Amino acid sequence: MTDTELRQISDRVAEVGARIQPLLAPCEGLSKRNAFAHIWLGVKTRFGESWRSAADGEEVQNFLTWVGDNPNADYDEYTGSVTLQRTEVPRIRNEPTLFDS
Fold first, then answer.
1. Which residues, at least 6 apart from 2, have a Cβ–Cβ distance to it below 8 Å?
2. Is the CB of residue 53 less than 8 Å from the CB of residue 87?
3. pLDDT confidence of residue 32
4. Does residue 67 form part of some domain?
5. Which of 15, 39, 41, 96 gets the most CB atoms within 10 Å of its CB?
6. Residue 79 — φ and ψ, nearest 5°?
7. Is residue 51 in a domain?
8. Would you say residue 64 lies in a domain?
9. What is the pTM of this model?
10. What's the domain count of the chain?
11. DSSP-derived 3-state class of residue 27
12. Alpha-carbon separation of residue 86 from 5, 56, 74, 75 (angstroms)
């Protein structure tokens, strides 16, 4: 993902977070919910820890729109596309793997 896409996503998280903050239902164990942390956790949950390099920017934007429309929904309820690009790590010739005995 490019720096421009990452900046757009960060700006969108700020916008959506500010809008949904008063709409978040109370959560047991938290004195106050943080909408921004809620959104970032959702991105990491749906797109993985390496979402910055593996996720499609448009799909992340679609997820942010969904969170804005469904602020109290569980992340697993999101039915939009989550396409992750696989990063192939080159293997050294004859390097043993976990499956070698």
1. 57
2. yes
3. 86
4. yes
5. 39
6. -110, 5
7. yes
8. yes
9. 0.79
10. 1
11. coil
12. 19, 12, 26, 22
Residues 35 and 71 sit within 8 Å (Cβ to Cβ): yes
13: pLDDT strictly greater than 70:
yes
Report if residue 68 sits inside a domain: yes
pLDDT in tens, 28-84: 887 889 999 999 999 999 998 889 988 999 999 999 999 999 999 999 899 998 887
How many of the other CB atoms lie within 10 Å of CB of 68?
A: 16
Closest CA to 67 of 100, 43, 50, 101: 43
Cβ proximity of 40 and 13 under 8 Å: yes
DSSP state of 85: -
76 contacts: CB under 8 Å, gap ≥ 6: none
Cα 72 to Cα 91: distance, rounded to the nearest angstrom:
43
Instruction: Give alpha helix (H) positions in 1-101.
Output: 3-20, 35-47, 51-54, 57-69
Range of the structural domain that residue 63 is part of: 3-77
Distance CA 29, CA 87 (A): 38
